[in-house]
Amino acid sequence: MLITRASEYAILSLIVLSKASSPMDSETLSNQLSIPKSFLAKILQSLAKHGILKSYKGVNGGFALIQKPEEITMLNIMSSVEGREPTVFDCSPSIESCPLNKASLCSLWPFLNKLQGEIDTFLADLTLADILE
């Protein structure tokens, strides 16, 4: 589930918004990025709800970044639009929360858990500014 279409669209939208000199409405973004307007609107609302974007109402309304691109991490973006932290595997993050109650017997769990930790660290360190470079 790591990079879903929602995460992809969120990142693309934030790239465009980071370069905009004024707020952009969802219709303009939708047309520019060829993203379905209703889907994009939900994504933008999630980003606003989580403090990444500010929503402006009215004729000149739209969305604009609240934070600087170097303060917005990929982990934050993806968690905001997905409603949970991104995972690569269906495996649980702890032995105690294994849905099959067999994590202590699973020879893959330590490897998958370590890999997920590395990915989490990478996404937490990678910012929107890094992608803009």
UniProtKB/TrEMBL annotation:
GO terms for molecular function: DNA-binding transcription factor activity. It holds the Pfam family Rrf2. It comes from the Bacteria. One of its GO terms (cellular component) is cytosol. Gene3D superfamilies: Winged helix-like DNA-binding domain superfamily/Winged helix DNA-binding domain. InterPro entries: TR_Rrf2-type_CS (IPR030489), Tscrpt_reg_Rrf2 (IPR000944), WH-like_DNA-bd_sf (IPR036388), WH_DNA-bd_sf (IPR036390). NCBIfam families: rrf2_super. This is Rrf2 family transcriptional regulator. It comes from Sulfurimonas xiamenensis.
